[in-house]
Specification:
With 384 residues, this protein is an alpha/beta fold. It is built from 13 helices and 13 strands. Strand 4, helix 3 (85-99) and strand 5 form a beta-alpha-beta unit. Bound molecules: nicotinamide-adenine-dinucleotide (NAD).
Length: 384
């Protein structure tokens, strides 16, 4: 089948198997070139198929020489419908890692569920005995709770509505968006989906089953960002979930202090991923950020960020006063943010090409689904 991109707003409904494989191949090549360091050897990655989780899995495999188990929720191909990018990424990763002599097993299903947790725990018990690191990189729009009820997260503000510029990803037009206020119930549900409850459950279940080693590390991801996005992110409904995630890290570290199990949060850079494309205002901010960070020679993608996290910051235990790893250190530098502030009010549909890296944004977007690689023949028939 010839696979072409089918973009609808902030999502692409097709994915290219060969392009996804190329994306994984390039991320592995980057880490191989950067070299190895001492680190955990049995790593569970929850949310391992795309974005920061996939990059984490690659970074620990090729940065520590770690064996990995990955959990993700992706769709297989059916009939003429391609699989999701994460499904192809996972297949490609397993193939490369196995060829390079690493253990790489993947589970596809609902990471929130008890069944998935039990299946993974059984596998760790049988194949490894114990894991020494757990990366929690799940980003989900909804969660089915243990009693079967489904809760959804929202991307809204807290307290007062917020109006600001955004980019309409259907036509690259700069428009205004008013983000509505989340109700108490919506906030509570957002926290249930994107907060630390499920992360805590994973760690608790693993400790109970004795499959997490003493001195193990667990790490989850957060975002803070500059003031222009605070109303929608840091202080918005998603930000409340991220506060809960942080509180969970403190709670876990305290509770398992006798075993020296440490829970960390890494605050990562804003990047184009399937999750961030869905947030109002953020894609416009990202396109301005990309332009400036590329000009300053500071730009990083998921793999550069995760390679830096695992082989540098985490090794040195370089955290800020609150205990966060700050991978947003380059993004939040004054010289970057001052330039964004200087153009934010000026940016319009007509000049976005001058002030923002809209081509870079879209190039990353297509690449997430396996398109736009110059060495992939998109006119060729592929097995989906
Ligand atoms: P992503 O959409 O690329 O990845 C999400 C992952 O979660 C995928 O592997 C997906 O399969 C998995 N997943 C979703 N629902 C699942 C379920 N029910 N069961 C099992 N797996 C499931 O997202 P991302 O942007 O890489 O986000 C990962 C983390 O990084 C999130 O905590 C996010 O908030 C954080 N983060 C993202 C950014 C950014 O700009 N993208 C910045 C900082 C922090």
């Amino acid at each position: 089948m010839i696979v072409e991109p089918k973009v609808k707003g902030f999502i692409c409904t097709t994915a290219h198997p060969e392009g996804c494989k190329e994306s994984v191949r390039r991320q592995i090549a980057y880490c191989k070139e950067k070299g190895m360091t001492e680190g955990p050897k049995k790593v569970l990655v929850i949310g391992a198929s795309t974005g920061y989780g996939l990059a984490s899995r690659i970074a620990v495999t090729y940065g520590y020489g770690a064996d990995t188990i990955g959990v993700s929720f992706e769709k297989e191909a059916t009939g003429k419908r391609t699989a999701t990018a994460g499904w192809y990424n996972t297949k490609a990763f397993e193939q490369f890692a196995t060829e390079d002599g690493y253990y790489a097993k993947s589970f596809n299903g609902d990471g929130f569920s008890r069944e998935m947790k039990q299946q993974v725990i059984e596998t760790i018990k049988k194949d490894w005995g114990k894991a020494d690191m757990v990366v929690y990189s799940m980003a989900a729009p909804r969660r089915t709770l243990a009693d079967g009820t489904m809760v959804s997260s929202v991307l809204k503000t807290v307290g007062t509505e917020f109006t600001n510029k955004t980019i309409d990803l259907r036509n690259n037009e700069i428009t205004e968006v008013t983000v509505p206020v989340a109700t108490e119930e919506e906030i509570r549900k957002t926290v249930q989906v994107m907060g630390g409850e499920d992360w805590e459950e994973w760690i608790r279940e693993m400790v109970k089953a004795d499959v997490l080693s003493d001195h193990a590390i667990t790490i989850a991801y957060s975002y803070i960002g500059p003031s222009v996005t605070h109303a929608i992110y840091k202080d918005g409904s998603i930000g409340q979930a991220k506060k809960h995630l942080y509180d969970t890290s403190v709670k876990l570290t305290k509770e398992f202090a006798d075993r020296d199990i440490k829970a960390y949060i890494s605050v990562n850079k804003a990047l184009v991923t399937q999750s961030s494309a869905a947030i109002p205002i953020v894609p416009l901010y990202i396109s301005l950020l990309y332009k400036i960070m590329k000009e300053e020679g500071l730009h990083e993608g998921c793999i550069e960020q995760m390679q830096r996290l695992f082989t540098d910051k985490l090794v040195k235990k370089e955290v800020d006063e609150a205990g966060y790893f700050r991978l947003d250190d380059w993004e939040l530098q004054d010289k970057v943010q001052d330039k964004i502030n200087a153009v934010w009010d000026k940016v319009t549909t007509e000049n976005i090409g001058e002030y923002g890296d809209i081509d870079g944004y879209w190039d990353d977007f297509y690449k997430m689904f396996g398109f736009h690689y110059d060495n992939v023949d998109y006119s060729a028939d592929v097995e989906i």
